[in-house]
From TrEMBL:
Belongs to the RecA family. RadA subfamily. CDD domains: RadA_SMS_N (cd01121). Residues 357-475 are annotated as: Lon-protease-like. This is DNA repair protein RadA. The gene is radA. Pfam families: AAA_25, ChlI, Zn_ribbon_LapB. One of its GO terms (molecular function) is zinc ion binding. It comes from Vallicoccus soli. The lineage of its organism: Bacteria, Bacillati, Actinomycetota, Actinomycetes, Motilibacterales.
Length: 475
């Protein structure tokens, strides 16, 4: 039989096939056992046999859909308004919510606060911790004021013990911190492995659907920020939330990624401190810096997260590059879109940036991914090149195309109302954006060259470019 060799000498390869009659093993499939000479008894080790499932007795008969009671599936508020906004109104009984984020971002603190608020309403809550001891969780609960008599705490890592606690307590809310620390004795593999995570999640989901208990699962993330474990975990749960935030900042964002009961693009804002995590119902203004005088290389835009418009400031720094490839550093923005905007600036706006180092970032740790921030990025970069600041009361909204055109974006009216509420009097928007708010000066710019000219001629060659276009006439 074939063997594998290693530096320490020959080592037998694990068997791939085994005879069901005598246990003889081999590395490849054969029709006849080499030991007992039986035919058709050699099968792959660990292979799942295909069986035909016979019809079984139904547990609940099918009913016409208008007769289904929907009151049991109504969302119940958690007591944290920002989290309810992301969840779509609150927690639905029987729903399974997966909350993921980097270590130290505040996942456990947020869920402990939610558990305490739920227990304060007279409901039984079970908090299972697999990462910390019960005493450590008790210290955090005392610090954030989450000491409630009906909040029950258990330190367990065995799935069977967790299911036993659920059967005994029958909670309306179960918090499992975290799903990667729980393991089933019935399944091979270490805790956190693909098989164990799938089994733990499936068992908790089954309990949630059968008993109507809402389940909050804490999930770990990998180096690139994705949820650790099998991708099927995100498909099994009802809601997936990501907790984002800079380690050096107190601001935390809870972003909805998947939601079967509400919008999947909402964002909740929180302030993480030593006393706990506090919701921020009005986050506008947190993502802009305060300048005594307008500073070159900055521009304010208005982004929409779900249904909420929020002001955000884009900062850019353009400096001479040493010989070689110029550097591009981006923080809080889409690097691919920034590279595209720089190319359009060079080609359509005649702003020399391709041979310079360009650094672009957002303020406050917010991440801007929608195309409506393209115009603000372009104006901030052009402002840094010319060292002429964008007016401090101006916001820029619009997507920039490869031909230099400024394209329309959604919800321009709500964006402008939010900007006006915070004291901004002027705005650059795409054509056809609708009627502007009363008392606000709104200029529609059809292309990037026009936007640069309106923002105090930030492009060095914009005037010549516009003259050349008029000389050529319409295309």
């Amino acid at each position: 039989m074939a063997t594998r060799t290693s530096r320490t000498g020959p080592r037998a390869a694990p068997p791939g096939y085994r005879c069901g009659e005598c246990g003889w093993t081999t590395q490849k499939w054969v029709g006849r056992c080499g030991e007992c000479q039986a035919w058709g008894t050699v099968e792959e080790v660990g292979a799942v046999r295909v069986r035909t499932t016979a019809p079984a007795t139904v547990s609940t008969p099918a009913r016409p859909i208008p007769e289904i009671d929907v009151e049991a599936a109504r969302a119940r508020p958690t007591g944290v308004g920002e989290l309810d906004r992301v969840l779509g109104g609150g927690l639905v009984p029987g729903a399974v919510v997966l909350i993921a984020g980097e270590p130290g971002v505040g996942k456990s603190t947020l869920l402990l606060d939610v558990a305490a608020r739920t227990a304060a309403r007279g409901e039984d809550v079970l908090y299972v911790t697999g990462e910390e001891s019960a005493s450590q969780v008790r210290l955090r609960a005392g610090r954030i004021g989450a000491l409630e008599q009906r909040l029950l705490l258990a330190a367990e890592t065995d799935l069977g013990a967790v299911l036993g606690h659920v059967a005994q307590v029958r909670p309306s809310l179960l918090v499992a911190d975290s799903v990667q620390t729980l393991a089933s004795a019935e399944v091979d593999g270490a805790a956190g492995g693909v098989t164990q995570v799938r089994e733990v999640a499936a068992a908790l989901i089954r309990v949630a659907k059968e008993s109507g208990t809402a389940v909050l699962l804490v999930g770990h993330v990998t180096k690139d920020g994705s949820i650790a474990g099998p991708r099927v975990l995100e498909h099994l749960v009802d809601v997936v939330l990501h907790v984002e935030g800079d380690r050096h900042s107190r601001l935390r964002l809870v972003r909805g990624v998947k939601n079967r009961y509400g919008p999947s693009d909402e964002v909740g804002c929180f302030d993480l401190s030593d006393e706990g995590i506090v919701e921020l119902p009005d986050p506008s203004g947190l993502f802009t810096s305060r300048h005594a005088d307008p500073a070159a290389g900055t521009c304010v835009t208005v982004t929409v997260e779900g249904k909420r418009p929020m002001l955000a400031e884009v900062q850019a720094l353009v400096s001479p590059a040493p010989p070689g490839s110029p550097r591009r550093a981006v923080s809080g923005l889409d690097a691919q879109r920034v590279a595209m905007v720089l190319a359009v600036l060079q080609k359509r706006g005649r702003v020399p940036v391709l041979q310079s180092d360009v650094y672009a970032a957002t303020v406050g740790g917010v991440r801007l991914s929608e195309p409506s921030v393209d115009l603000a990025v372009a104006l901030a970069v052009a402002s840094s090149v010319s060292e002429r600041p964008v007016p401090g009361d101006l916001v820029a909204i619009g997507e920039v195309g490869l031909a230099g055109e400024v394209r329309r974006v959604t919800a321009v009216g709500r964006r402008l109302l939010e900007a006006q509420r915070l004291g901004y009097a002027r705005a650059l928007v795409p054509p056809g954006s609708g009627a502007p708010p009363a008392g606000m000066q709104v200029v529609e710019v059809p292309d990037l060259a026009e936007a640069l000219a309106r923002a105090q001629d930030l492009g060095p060659n914009v005037t010549r470019l516009r003259t050349d276009r008029r000389a050529r006439g319409p295309a």
